[in-house]
Design brief:
eight-stranded mixed sheet, two-stranded antiparallel sheet, 10 helices, globular
């Protein structure tokens, strides 16, 4: 079970984003990929899904070594609590021989689940990681340890790197562009904000609800409903820095990266040109 956004404990059923991630992971594996990049919006459930998948493997498979590394200690503790919540919801609770603030050892499968913070532990090849989850890579202060973590994985290990965007030219950005151009062995998965079913505000779509010219273009570009556009307007108005909406809730990967960079050309104009170009190509 999982604690939802209303703080209620409910059965863990995939939301629309998690279903899409699962399908994308399967498609990538069918193409021979074992390493995945997930570029996402905030609070869409990518971490919850990955944590649960790795836990199931530790509970059902022998000698797994699952590792989750987050960007800061507070986030690591929240992820750890989520894993313990998963475990505590199981009846009967699985036997555990190691139960600490960093590692969980499972008695019957001899598998272990480690959760740490970037830079806090130097992993070596002897760690033999079978499942690696890198959380919020774009927010790590130092990404140099990523190489050591990936090198510590066994040949058949699954590697999932998920993050919200934090700027052009970052380690994740370089991995992402390399994956899209086929220059590395990562499979890119992008999740726009409007894929989340809950990002709607139907109660705000009143008879006098009208979109301005910019909103009309945005709606046409991505094929959004008025309820989704109402949520977008509400969210932007509620943010301390509204200009960061495309970073926190990107509609496409170009928007996510360019918003945080020092762009020479206007991002909205670039989006318009790209949209028109794509339509001509489709015709």
């Amino acid at each position: 079970k999982i604690v939802n956004k209303s703080t209620k404990t409910v059965p863990f059923k995939y939301n629309s984003v998690q279903q899409y991630i699962e399908r994308s992971l399967t498609e990538g594996k069918e193409k021979g990929y074992k390493k995945f990049l997930i570029l996402k919006s905030r609070k869409q459930g990518a971490s919850s899904l990955t944590l649960a998948k790795f836990l199931v493997r530790c509970l059902t498979m022998q000698n797994r070594r699952a590792v989750v590394i987050s960007h800061e200690s507070g986030a690591t503790q929240r992820l750890l609590k989520r894993v313990y919540d998963y475990i505590d919801s199981l009846k009967p609770r699985p036997p555990i021989d190691t139960e600490s603030t960093k590692e969980i050892g499972f008695t019957e499968t001899r598998s272990s689940y480690y959760l740490g913070t970037a830079g806090s532990k130097a992993f070596g090849r002897g760690d033999d990681i079978t499942d690696l989850h890198i959380s919020e890579l774009d927010w790590w202060e130092n990404t140099e340890s990523l190489t050591g973590l990936v090198e510590a994985c066994i040949p058949d290990a699954e590697v999932i790197i998920e993050t919200t965007c934090h700027g052009w030219g970052s380690k994740f950005h370089l991995l992402w562009t390399g994956a899209k151009s086929g220059e590395n062995d990562y499979y890119p998965i992008f999740i726009p904000w409007f894929m989340s079913d809950e990002y709607v505000k139907p109660e705000l779509v009143t008879p006098d609800f009208k979109l301005d010219d910019i909103e009309l273009k945005y709606r046409e570009r991505y094929g959004l409903s008025l309820e989704q556009m109402a949520w977008r307007r509400w969210k932007i108005r509620s943010m301390d820095r509204p200009e960061l909406f495309p970073q926190e809730y990107p509609a496409d990967d170009r928007e996510a990266f360019l918003t945080t960079g020092n762009a020479v050309f206007d991002n909205d104009i670039l989006s318009d040109l790209e949209f028109v170009g794509n339509r001509k190509q489709a015709v």
